[in-house]
Amino acid sequence: MSITGQDLFNLLPGYYRVKDTQLARAMNLLTATEAARVQTLQSMTPPLPAALQAELDGLLAKASRGPLLSLMMLIAEQVGAVEGDLNQLYDDAFIETCADWVIPYIGDLIGYQAVHGMAAAVASPRAEVAHTISFRRRKGTVLVMEQLARDVTGWGAHAVEFFRLLADTQYMNHVRLGNHYAPDLRKWKPLAYMDGGFDKTAHKVDVRRIAVERGKYNIQNIGIFLWSLTGYGLLKAAVAPAPPVPGAGGMASPCFRVSALGRDMPLFNHLVPQGSDITAPAKPMNVTDCLKRQVLCKDIQGGAGAVYYGEGNSLALYINANLVSPYQVQVCDLSGQDGAWMNTPPNGSPYAAAVDPALGRIALPAAAAGAAAPTVQATFYYGFNGDIGGGDYAREAGFAVASEASPPVFPFGQAQAATTSLLDTLNAAIASVSGGGQAAVEITDNGIYTLAPASPGGAVPLAVPAGATLEFRAADGCRPTVILSGELQVSGGADSLMFLNGLVLAYVQPAVGGTLPTSLVHVPDAASNQLATLTIANCTLVPGLALQPDGTPQGAYAGIPTLIADLPGLTLDIQDSILGGIWVNGLVTAEITDTIIDATDPTHVAYMAPPAPGGPAPLPGGSLTMCGCTVVGKVYSSLLSLVSNSVFWAALASTDVPGGPGAWSAALWAARKQEGCVRFSYVPASSILPRNFECVQEGPGEPQPAFVSLLYGDPGYCKLSWCTDDQIRRGADDGGEMGAFHFLLAPLRETDLSIRMQEYIPVGMEFGIYYEN
Known about the structure:
11-stranded parallel beta sheet, alpha/beta, 8-stranded parallel beta sheet, 4 domains, 14 helices
């Protein structure tokens, strides 16, 4: 306890204390204002509020405080400062309590090396130094290397000592009964995990060095396996019906795909955290990876104790809103063409549903004649590389209309869909801001909803009143799919704003009176249209408009853009989204950040102006600012104001004759070369650009990006492979990768891991990094 001035005063002889008190009464130490305040407080009826009582006590103490007591209080204050400094000197010996300025000195004392701090676990220098001290006690163990890999990268990780997997002649005094030279082929696990992070089979020695990414299985080698994809969950999402499979007795087996777009895709497991400190090696459930058929089949046999199946786990099926018991789920291979799936449950099957996690397919037994079609929902996880295009990640901070806005947000979900349509709800929101203001229509679940025009082949109009803001969005944590059967036509009055947030927009051609759409979203050029800004954030406008089961776009929609902005003067703002081709008027200003623009083929058009009726094509689109984007397709812009950290994967078609009338002169083409800048980007060969800096241009012998996949819906969609040349993979202005996933700074995470591993790897050992997905 600190010494106070009163404590020192009490140590003095009583004579001095009495004289000091008498002197204080004679001097009248309170000012006239303070004396009046004391009288006022004392005249009030007790008890006084705490604040007033504290004020009164302070004034009375001041009135009774003599010069000697004041001196003792001053001395005590200085003693307290010395005491605090001594206490801080003791605290500075520990990283948990030291002052901020001491952290670098403690770090240097223990040999801590600073890293970029991309992952949240290593973003705090104090926490990192504290972890380093903790890790030093376990230095050289495989578990500390595994925890380092997880914390430094923020990804799933598993460390493997490869000498434990070598096939060798055993010493007979120490026989390792579990180390078989050949795997037991009667078990499924050896083949399922072969050559991966959880491989348990024996391997021949590989004498090449692991440090240069050539060797693998050797005595001195340690492998760090990383799962860099993220699992995004959809809770009780609507599934897309597939053509039924004929069943016994002439009845058909109802078939579904968990993807709302009707394409096959692998399901992922929901990562089970290992805790802040790793005390046991990672298992398959502790990393984000594809959910294997054998793993799920083995898991559901555990019933209520299942790890992967059930509410709150990786997968749950609901029929007519009721959770299907794990004992009623059959895991099997449902591959095959639509209408001829394998292993569908027959009529009278003891199973309520069959599921194929490798393809994301569900099949039910054939229903009795005349029975109502069942309603099927699924809670599942899909894999993707980053937080773009919508998902269950946090988006509320980016809402244009606050959730507590007045008038309130218009919710729309399964309950509202039973009595009204989505278009009517949008019109009601528009009517509520007819005189200006803000309104939002918020879809509150992961359902599939239709937005149809009043007449087949028409458009779905959204007219924002003058001075108003309209937001059409998904609730935070939701990713609904809106199926259009006509283009969404956006217009507005003066100073009006339109926002799309968190939605997946796709197209289906109506059965009657359907014609090919011009786009998914269209801002037309009309005299009455004065829309100021169209903002698209965390949305997916499905490239190709609609997908086939294998993920390729339907051929009828080839070359059709997903967005046409034909209104001069419009500001187009696109963030964290996935779109197909974009056609914008030459007087539109487009700003695109952390986005994939995918025309579905390098020779298709990703960006240009809508072609004039009967006129020559192409025409340059409006001024373009692009940062951290991946573009698949040709680009023709009037001005490339600033292009940074982006990848343009484009090529001229065989019909394009450079220099010919109406033909493309280059796959990336800026009409004005005197202004603008292209920097730290990958550009096609013979691009027509303004000044450029540190760009990588396609050409013989030059590096080029290696994408894991270019099919929307694949887990590795537009993700650069780890084998991409470092001129591209580390070619951004901050040492990160070029393209839409630049914001993840994956190469810097890998660099941080290499720095950390050098500190903790045992002497004489080497390590290698392997990406599992």
